[in-house]
Each structure stands twice: as structure tokens, then as C-alpha cells.
Design goal:
- Residues 3-151 form the Nucleotidyl transferase domain.
- This protein is of the alpha/beta class.
- It is built from 8 helices and 11 strands.
- Strands 1, 2, 3, 4, 6, 7, 8, 9 and 10 form a 9-stranded mixed sheet that branches. The chain has a two-stranded antiparallel sheet with strand order 5-11.
């Protein structure tokens, strides 16, 4: 198993940081200064803590900043990093970005979005949920109060994920997908095909729309509730402030 990070996004709502950096390299240290801990640092630290030794990172917007830090990150976390170029990072949404990593997924991966600050307990929860034939397991927050922006999920206890979308009445949802997934290697071909169908239909779609495509085809996607843990998806400066507060606690 290897780690996989989607770090190709521009994060325009985080300017001026993202004038020169991809979203995953925005500092989340208490002062928010250049060179301090980033979302990517936190994720790589989590991967190292659970014993992974290799990580693939999909890069695109301002990818040179990740290339410049590659050796230092490898040394700091004891990981071998492979960078995968997304040639449409500034044009298309992340269904295509995850498809770019289709070969990496064959090794079985824990996927983490490059803008999600979360504790290592999330990865540990996903690993603990393995072993009963599941092929894809989503980390699910069933505690948080949901609103319109969240990636909401409806789960049937017997059949797994039935619906995953932001476009849902929050009252219908079982919980929120937090942007971390365990994907077994034997799901790679099915997922790649669903993602390709998704971005060919509309390049502006999310990889979660690819998950929905899989579900529509009869593929079972499971979930693992993460419990009452603090995490945040960093989309804007308010989220960044929350991310800095959370990052100090882990």
C-alpha cells in the first residue's frame, strides 16, 4: 500500500498564498509564515506514522514548488515521493486529477485531498476497516452539522454508499465525506473507467462524481465513521484559520 495526495489545485480563494504556491503548500503553522508546516506536511506525516514508505502526489498548479521541496520532504518523512503531472489542473476538476493517478492506485492507496487537515486517527480507522472484502472505503464524519457546501453521503447499512454529492438536502445525509479514502488495488480498473466516463461527460466534475458513477454501476463503496475528531477542508481564509488551530493540536 502507498499514499496518494491530490495536490494539483489552485485554491484561488486562498490568495495571496496561492499566487506562488499550490493549495497543498499553504502554511498552516500558527503564524502562517513561509517555510512552516503545510497541509502536505501534515498528510505525509500521517502516512509515515502508519508505516507507508511510498507516496504519489498529483501536481499541477504551481507544481514547481512541490518539485523544489521533493528531496527535503523525502528526507524529513522517510518517504519515497513520486510526482504525477496533471496537465489540465487549471482547466478541469479533480475527477481528471485522480484519473491521472490510475497506475498508482493499482498498488492500493490511501488517498488524501491536498486541502484536508486531519489527524492520523483517520488513516488508522480506514486501515482497521479493511479485511472484509471492501474495495473502496470512505472516511465519513457522522458527527458534524451539515450545510450546503459539504460533500454529503447517504449510506445504506447493507448496500453501502447510495449517494454522494454536495447537491443534497443535509437532512437526508448519513454524514460528510472528508476527502480521505482507502482504495484497494483490485478496484483500480473499475475506478479509472468510472472517472474517465465522469470527466468526459463534464470535465468540471469531482472525483466523488466518479464514485457515484461506480455506485450507479452496482459497485459497492463502503464507509468508515471517523468519530468525533477535528478536521477541516481548507477552501478559504476562514477555513485556513480553523486549519491552523487544528494543526496545533495534532
Amino acid at each position: 500500500m502507498i499514499g496518494l495526495v491530490l495536490a494539483a489545485g489552485a485554491g484561488r480563494r486562498l490568495r495571496p498564498y496561492t499566487d506562488t504556491l499550490p493549495k497543498a503548500l499553504v502554511p498552516v503553522g500558527p503564524e502562517g509564515k513561509e517555510g512552516e508546516t503545510t497541509v502536505l506536511d501534515l498528510t505525509l506525516g500521517n502516512f509515515a506514522e502508519i508505516g507507508l514508505t511510498e507516496v504519489a502526489i498529483v501536481v499541477g498548479y504551481r507544481k514547481e514548488a512541490v518539485y523544489e521541496r521533493k528531496e527535503a520532504l523525502e528526507e524529513r518523512y522517510g518517504l519515497k515521493l513520486t510526482l504525477i503531472d496533471n496537465d489540465k489542473a487549471e482547466e478541469w476538476n479533480n475527477a481528471y486529477s485522480l484519473w491521472c493517478a490510475r497506475d498508482a492506485i493499482k498498488h492500493s492507496v490511501i488517498l488524501a485531498n491536498g486541502d484536508t487537515v486531519h489527524p492520523v486517527s483517520v488513516e488508522k480507522t480506514l486501515l482497521a476497516a479493511r479485511g472484509n472484502g471492501q474495495k473502496i472505503i470512505l472516511a465519513l464524519d457522522t458527527v458534524k452539522q451539515l450545510a450546503d457546501e459539504e460533500m454529503k453521503v447517504v449510506v445504506d447499512p447493507a448496500k453501502g454508499v447510495q449517494k454522494i454529492t454536495k447537491l443534497m438536502d443535509p437532512a437526508e445525509a448519513t454524514g460528510e465525506y472528508i476527502g480521505v479514502t482507502l482504495i484497494e488495488g483490485d478496484a483500480a480498473a473499475d475506478l479509472a473507467d468510472a472517472l474517465k466516463t465522469t470527466f468526459e461527460r463534464d470535465p468540471d466534475l469531482y472525483y466523488e462524481d466518479g464514485y457515484q458513477e461506480l455506485v450507479n454501476r452496482g459497485f459497492k463503496i463502503d464507509v468508515a465513521p471517523i468519530g468525533d475528531v477535528k478536521w477541516v477542508e481548507i477552501d478559504n481564509h476562514d477555513d485556513l484559520a480553523k486549519g491552523r488551530d487544528i494543526a496545533c493540536q495534532y
